[in-house]
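Hi,

I'm pasting everything inline rather than attaching a file, because the server keeps stripping attachments. The sequence lines come first, and each chain or strand is labelled.
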Amino acid sequence: MQQISETDRFNVLYRIEASDRKTAQELARDITIEQTVEIPFDCIPQEHFNKGIIGHIETLENPDDGLYDVTISFRSDITAFQLTQFLNVLYGNISLKSGIKVLDISFPHSFYSHFRGPSHGIDGLREILGVYNRPLACTALKPMGLSVTELALMAHEFASGGIDLIKDDHGITDQQFHCFEERVSICAAAVEKANLASGGNTLYFPCVSGTFDLVENQVRFALSRGLKGILIAPFLSGLDTMRYLSEKYGIMIMAHPALAGAFFTGANHGIAINVLLGKIFRLAGADISIFPNWGGRFPFSKQECLSLASSLREEIGWKRSFPCPAGGMNLQRLGEMISEYGNDSVLLLGGALLQDKRGIRENSREFMSRVKAHST
Amino acid sequence: MQQISETDRFNVLYRIEASDRKTAQELARDITIEQTVEIPFDCIPQEHFNKGIIGHIETLENPDDGLYDVTISFRSDITAFQLTQFLNVLYGNISLKSGIKVLDISFPHSFYSHFRGPSHGIDGLREILGVYNRPLACTALKPMGLSVTELALMAHEFASGGIDLIKDDHGITDQQFHCFEERVSICAAAVEKANLASGGNTLYFPCVSGTFDLVENQVRFALSRGLKGILIAPFLSGLDTMRYLSEKYGIMIMAHPALAGAFFTGANHGIAINVLLGKIFRLAGADISIFPNWGGRFPFSKQECLSLASSLREEIGWKRSFPCPAGGMNLQRLGEMISEYGNDSVLLLGGALLQDKRGIRENSREFMSRVKAHST
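And the predicted assembly:
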C-alpha cells in the first residue's frame, strides 16, 4: 500500500443553517472536530492539527439568508480507504444533528486508486449487450407473491418482446413462496429460452438481498446460471456489501435506492440525492443507479435528477455509470426521458408494461420500438 | 422452518401528512401497495388481496391538524424473516416519498422465533461483569490519530480507574497509523494488565468497522484476544452484519448510531429514534444501544430518549438491552441520568474524562464512585 501524504485530502461541501457568519463558522468548526477526533477542543493535541487530522475549513460562503456553504477538507487516509469509515467521516455523527446537508464531494486521486468504482460501467454493459447507439430498456418482474412459474412466464414474455434488461422487483427476495435459487434458475432458463428463439440478448438481473451469510452464495449461484448482473439495494444490504460483490466477482451491479430516501428528502439535512445515488453509489461499484424520476410517484425535481445523471457519467477516475430513471414511468414519458437523459441511460418501465391490455410481449415490443425510434 | 400462517402479521404505525381524511386514506392505501407489490392498483391479482399479501389498513386516526396516524399490518413472511427485506417492507420505497414517519412497530411471535435479538442482553452482561445493583460505567478511547502506544496507555489508565467498559471511539478503525490487529492486541493487553493489578474486571470493546470481507476476521481476532464484545455502527457496516456477528459468534454488541440520524432528525419523515435505535437495533442483536442524550451536543428531547430506553428494556420476546445515553455527557449530569434511566443503563462519558486535569485514572475513579453513590 502506497504511503498517503498528509496533504492528500478530499473536500466535502456542506450546507449549514446558521443565523449569521460567526455562528456558521462555529458550526463549521464543530464539524471539523465531530467528524474526526470527536473530543472537546481543549483536549485536542497540537500534533493533530499539525498533521492535518482535524478537518480544515477551506471556504465559507453565504448563498442565501440563513444558509452557509462550507467546504471542509479531510485527510484521505483517516477513512482507511474503507467505505464504512468514509461514510462515518462524511456524515456519521453529524447525521444526528440538524441543518447540515452534504451537497458535494471532490475526490483526490488516492480515492481512484483505492476504490475501483463500477466494474463494467456504461461501455462494459454496452459491449455485453452489443447495443451502442441508443438508451437501454429495462423492466421488472413483479408483483412479489406470484408463483415461480408465473414469474418465469413473465420473464419469457419480456425477453420475447426484446427488452434489454429484466430485473427482479427489489421486494422479490427469498420468500418461501418464491425462494431465491428455484426462482432464479427458472427465470434465467425462461429468458435463455426466449433469447434462443428470438436471437435476442436479454439479460436477467435477479434481486440479491441475502443476509450477510447468504448474499455471496446468491451471487455465486447467479453466476453459475450464466447471469451477468444483479439488483441490490445498498441501504438494505450494506454499501460495502455491494462494493465487495462488484470487486470480488466482477458481476454487474444495478443499485436500488430503497431506504436511502431518508437521506435526501429533507431540504436542509442529509445527503443530496446526486451525491448519494450518484457519486457514492458509483464509488461503491454501481454500474447502473436506479432513482425516482421527476413527475412520477416520487417528489424529486428535474434539476435533482439531471444532476444525479451527471454525477454518474462525468469523466473522473472511475468508469461511467448508467442513470436509470424510474418510479411510475410509462410509454408516454419516453420521448421526454430520452431527450433529457440522452443515449447513455437505462429507461425502466415496470407496472406500465403490465397495465396495457395488449399483453406483456406486445407492450415490450412497443417499448423497444419507441426507444429505437427516439434515439438521438 | 415452520409454515407461517397468512394471518401472521406485524403492525406498523405510520404518521402521515394529509390535508383531510380522504387524502390520508388514499396515502395509506398507497403505502399498502408501494411496500408490497408495487404495481398499479388495477394490475393487482385478486388472489394477492385474498392471501393478505397487500398491506391492510387496520386503524386511521387524526391526532393533530394535517397529521394522520395509520396502522398498517403486513404479512410476516413477505419479509422472508430477513432484516434486509424487513427494512424494505417497513420503509424501503416510501423513504423516497415525503411526510411519512414510522412511529411504532408491533412484532408477532413469529419474529421472536426467527430473529434472536441480543445474545446476552442486560442480564448476560451483568453476569460477565459481576455487577448487579448499579448502572454500568463506560468510556471511549480517543482521539483517532493517537499512536497505538498512547491508546494503550489510555486504556490502562481507564481500567486502573475501575471503569466497567472501554470502547474504541467509532472513528478508530483500521487506519494505517493504528491498524486494527496491532491496536486491539496492545489495548487488550493493557486492560488485562490493569485488571490483574487491580483485581478489576474492565472489558474492552474494540471498534469493528471492517469491510464486508474483513469484518468477520476482526471479530475472530477480538475473540482470540479474550475480548467479549465489540463496538459496531450498523448503518455504516450493515444492520444484518451486526445481526450475523451476534448470532454466529455470540459476541456482545454495542451498537453506535453513526449515520442513522438522517432517519430520525426529520419531524414528519423517517423512522422515530426509539423505533430505529430501540426496537430495530434490539431485533438486530444490540446488547447495548448508544444514543445521544438530551442536553448534550445533539438535539433530542428527554421524551424521545426515555422512550428509546423503554423500547430497549420492555419485556417482549427478546432479551432486554442496555440503553447507553451519550454525546457530551459529564460528571455533573450523572445524578440526573441515573435517576432518569435507572440502574439498567450504561452511562458513557468520553471527552469529559480527558478534560479534567487530575488525569484519566483519577477522573475514572471519581466517575465510578459517583455511579456507585448515586445508584438506586
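Chain B touches chain A through 84 residues (CB under 8 Å).

If the labels don't parse on your end, tell me and I'll reformat.
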